């Protein structure tokens, strides 16, 4: 059980690096969709077959693996953007920072005062690493679409953490998070189209005109 | 006690009926005025009861807030502050009927009267509160209502600015007071005020309490260098509000200091010493700054600073007397300070009210626009003269009596070989200098305003104030004269009040020092009689004199009004002497060449603390933060996310 678990999480971390290092938006979205779909397996693996875990897994698979990526791909088609042209920090530097963040996550997870059951495996460090990678993506990219991908990664990290608690965490909470995310993606998509129409660009730097 | 509570309730609610009345009708203002006068009468009833029985009135109700209790305690000390409050509040309310008639001020009159009543009620509560939290509640009510009195004419930028400075200053003061009361609670074990002389002063804590109290109460009282809010606020408020603020409200700072120091069983010498130093600074620089002003209400406001300085000198002397165990100093110092609180309340409101009638008649506060007003407003001139004589500390009015008590205290310590006596002896020259400068200042004001020839057209059309405005001033002048001519009637009351501050002061082996008041009374009557006779004699002789030239014509055949002394030129000699502390700005006035063309001279004296120190410092800080913000708040989403990440990491590491 732990082996499959660890393999999935390692793939998730590798996907983090892939997303951080890739300039092609379609590849990023597909990677994050794959990440979401893989993570949807986790509750079932960790907690066995039960109505709760199956529901959680199904919901996550549908939303993260299917619906949201589909919405994003559609948005990309409409605004006709393929590549993240000039990130704030170069892709190599982002990759390097991502590696540092992953190392830091592993070191940090060892220091956390957790109960023994949670200490085993790489659940906690993988969760932290994914969250940090998502944050990094949020900070370094210009295109609004990559921002959405960043939020998705952030949510994936939180989801991994939630798996630890999924017996304690009621279904409603997880469902609410997923719903939040969906709404956020919808709003982002609408804003994206409007920004594109107004400024003929979806660079988020243009949004700074709104500051006081 | 029912008297006092009725007074608080009546005053606090006095403005409420007016809110429901016609905006242009005069019903609301009459009701408000009647309620304030009734409240003042009830308050005076309570004062009389305290002085007649000799025991403090006490009332204790429980209050549903932790640590708080509705304890109201009116002792002789508080009664001395309540007395001028009642007189000034009633006089101002009646004066306001004509000065700020609702029909002329439909937009702000009702609001003004609501807060006028609230200030009166809040000051009553402040001086009677027996619990820290009740005290702070009343204090804050007073401060906030005072803000609305100052900004009554909020269409003027000047009033808005003055109100803002006032609000900032008074909230800074409250901050210090909050800290002080918490420390006091740790010392005494409860938020209820301890009885006089029960608290033992212990080292650092007591020093912190005193310093915080000195800052918080000093800010309200207006001791230099904490007087920053005072000049602009008194100048901007309507005249009867200035009278209430200057005559009564700033005295709550003095009350707070007196009440605070009464708690302690022994007083370190430096407490009295620092109060003496601050008092001397305020007295001298208050009057010098007043001399340099051209705005008549600003000038009066600086005189409030001066008089607060004199009161602080008296209180400082009493504190030094306590730490040296000299009951005579305590008696005379505190007696003088308390009497000056009453006196200043009376004559300063008289002055503000009479100046209000001048301002209303001429429409300007600029001294250099006045001149010759005594022909148009003879009664106002007479009333102002009475107030001016009183504030200059001249007999036969009341200002002389309180300063006399302080002088007596100074000279009583001269013969003895008391340690620290030098500090006391230095009060005498300070008081003398202050008195002389105040006299010079009021010669300037009276001369520029009421004597000479009109300097502008506004003066020529000025009319005498209506009877409803003159009557309250006459009552105030009557009280000034009463204290000046019959000071011995107040002797027992003073003894009572000093006893409630520090009972040890009454155990005096020597004969009571207040007996000299009887001699003063005789002297004052003789002086009054002499003045009366000489005036009558001059009036009789005047019929034989043929007047061909104007007053102060300097021998010119055809002088015009621009050849008169101006307010600036009259004060110039003294202002130049004190240039080191005033830094008066002058522009122009230098005639060049043999046939000089027209020249223009203006001089302006900004406030040394507010305009020279605090405003430049604040604008520097605000510039720095604007720069910092434009760097931090740059509008880039990535940076905000970075801030979030950094905060998160910081807290994760912090709590690990």
UniProtKB/TrEMBL annotation, chain A:
Stated membrane topology is: Multi-pass membrane protein
Q: Where in the cell is it found?
A: Cell membrane
**Chief location bin:** membrane
Q: List residues traversing the bilayer.
A: 6-25, 32-50, 56-76, 88-108, 120-139, 151-169, 175-195
Q: Which domain of life is it from?
A: Bacteria
- Note whether Transmembrane occurs among the keywords: yes
Where does the signal sequence lie? Answer: none
Work out whether the entry's keyword set contains Cell membrane. Answer: yes
Q: Which GO terms describe its cellular component?
A: plasma membrane
- Alphabetic keyword roster: Cell membrane, Membrane, Transmembrane, Transmembrane helix
Q: Which InterPro entries match?
A: HyfE-like
The name this protein carries in UniProt is: Hydrogenase
This chain's source organism reads Pelovirga terrestris
TrEMBL record, chain B:
Record membrane topology:
Multi-pass membrane protein
User: Which organism does this sequence originate in?
Assistant: Pelovirga terrestris
Alphabetical GO CC annotations of the entry are: plasma membrane
Where does it mainly reside? membrane
Q: What's an example Gene Ontology biological process for this entry?
A: ATP synthesis coupled electron transport
Q: What is this protein called?
A: Hydrogenase
Q: Highest taxon of the source?
A: Bacteria
List UniProt keywords, sorted A-Z. Answer: Cell membrane, Membrane, Oxidoreductase, Transmembrane, Transmembrane helix
Localization in the cell: Cell membrane; Membrane
Q: From the UniProt record, which GO molecular function terms apply? A: NADH dehydrogenase (ubiquinone) activity; oxidoreductase activity
- An example of a Pfam family matching this protein is Proton_antipo_M
Q: Which residues form the NADH:quinone oxidoreductase/Mrp antiporter transmembrane domain?
A: 129-413
